[in-house]
Design brief:
The chain contains eleven helices and five strands, in the order βαβαβαβαβααααααα. Helix 6 packs across helix 11, helix 8 packs across helix 11 and helix 9 crosses helix 10. By secondary structure, the chain is of the alpha/beta class. The N and C termini lie far apart (38 Å). Helices cover 54% and strands 13% of the residues. A five-stranded parallel beta sheet has the order 2-1-3-4-5, with helices on both faces. The protein has two domains: 123 residues, 3-Layer(aba) Sandwich (Rossmann fold), CATH 3.40.50.2300; 76 residues, Rossmann fold (3-Layer(aba) Sandwich). Keywords: DNA-binding, Phosphoprotein, Transcription, Transcription regulation.
Length: 216
């Protein structure tokens, strides 16, 4: 069973999401929170696999709450909920460790698909959508961030850089394997190695790093 915590200051939104998720056999809603300041305690109490996190809340917003979760020893995956796909906070959400985002009017079937993917350790955004999102909301990288990103990439091996660039270009593991003449297992091993070496949570953050370095 996939354990889900719902965080939103709107009681109707929480009720609607809970009703939808509770109707699915492999998902259970283990708890709810009405503000970001309640999230750490709720996570410790309920032990969710996935947190559906609203961005705008009265006391502590979902981005700050996500940052607090990601420093836990075994943090849950976070899917940030937002009203607009052009919301500038989406980029910050991905940078601080969220596995992706959903629009609040996302169809139920897509929400379930996202929850299952994230629970399985995959970003909820497809590689193509990830690239489109980054291009749409990132605008440009500041000079300092660009320098840090370039320096980080320089610390990688040549092969690791090739894999990172392919991720940044929105390619799937199968496409990376075909392009670099690597088996799927080897590609997965490189992706895992990159996440560990870069201290990142998912491939979305790798794509953001590549974007910041100016390679997208």
């Amino acid at each position: 069973m996939i354990r889900v915590l719902i965080v939103d200051d709107d009681a109707l939104v929480r009720a609607g999401l809970a009703m939808m998720l509770d109707g699915v056999e492999d998902v259970v809603v283990v708890g709810e929170a009405a503000d970001g300041d309640q999230v750490p305690a709720a996570v410790r109490e309920h032990g969710p696999d996935v947190v559906l996190m609203d961005i705008r809340m009265p006391r502590v917003d979902g981005l700050v709450a996500t940052e607090k979760l990601r420093v836990m020893a075994q943090p849950p995956e976070v899917i940030v909920l937002t009203t607009f796909d052009s919301d500038e906070n989406v980029l910050r959400a991905l940078r601080c460790g969220a596995s992706g985002f959903l629009l609040k009017d996302t169809p139920p079937a897509e929400i379930m698909h996202a929850v299952r993917r994230v629970a399985a350790g995959e970003p909820m955004l497809s590689p193509g959508v990830t690239r489109t999102l980054i291009t749409h909301i990132a605008g440009g990288s500041g000079t300092d961030r660009k320098g840090r990103a370039e320096s980080t990439l320089e610390s990688l091996s040549e092969r690791e850089v090739e894999v990172a660039l392919a991720i940044g270009q929105g390619k799937s593991n199968a496409e990376i394997g075909a392009e670099l003449y690597m088996s799927l297992a080897t590609v997965k091993a490189y992706v895992s190695r990159l996440l560990t070496k870069l201290d990142m949570n998912n491939r979305v953050q790798i794509a953001l790093l590549v974007h910041d370095a100016g390679h997208i």
